[in-house]
Amino acid sequence: MGTGELLRYWRDVRRCTQLNLSLMSGVSQRHISFIESGRSSPSRHTLLDLAESLDIPLRDRNSLLLSAGFAPMYPEGTWEDEDMMGVTTALKRMLHYAEPYPAVVMDRYWNVLMTNDALPRLFNCFTNASAWGEPHNILHAIFDPARLRPHIAGWNDLAISLIQRVYREAVGRHVDEQTLALLESLLGYPGVPAEWKNPRGLESVMTSPVVPLALTKDGRTLRFFSMVTTVGTPQTVAGQELRLECMLPVDAETERLHRALMERELSARGSQNETIGSGRK
Predict the structure, then answer these.
(1) In this structure, are residues 159 and 143 in contact, taking their beta carbons and an 8 Å threshold?
(2) What pTM value is reported for the model?
(3) What stretches in the chain show pLDDT beneath 50?
């Protein structure tokens, strides 16, 4: 797409008229119209003002700049790059502080980047998480019948809520091709209605203010809700796309059951290590 087409596209995504965009950005409506029609070439500063007003994701702001012949402004890179060291160090610290409850750092597509020790320990109480293989993705772990799904009470309500979150929490509220591919793969699992792909079809589906992840074990249910943290005022693409999710107990009963489950898991792991150690003598 050219610059004008991209600008018009993002205006349509945001359901923003040229007049409203003009009022938000300080760029005249006439100039916006000329940019979209190709009759005017915007300056770099003008493009950045328009992109900020439309809340265009940083990755797509780079594409907008490139379309007009300007160099990208926001470094892409990865979360492991040296310039992200401060952010990743803070995330690791927050993962540690979340103990004894599970926490995970994900990218915009729910791929697992880092976890604390509590997350795999909890999941391994229900299924052999080490045998899951690719993809290491939270949504696949919940939708796949070979992973957590058989152990989730009220799976249908949780799944609907998560699909809604995929649309609602897409970076810049923009569902890109990779997000659509993720949704397509989730819809391929058994028992997932095809109409869930249409976000408007889900608008009439009422969900609770908090839809917990409810895991059943030995006839008892542990209920967790999520707290999501993102990087404030990110200046890199990778920084904007990081998300830390902490799972916290909904009630005192879950807190008690979780503590007992972790103590049992730790005891079993210790016994296993002793057996391995004695076998080596």
Answers:
(1) yes
(2) 0.81
(3) none
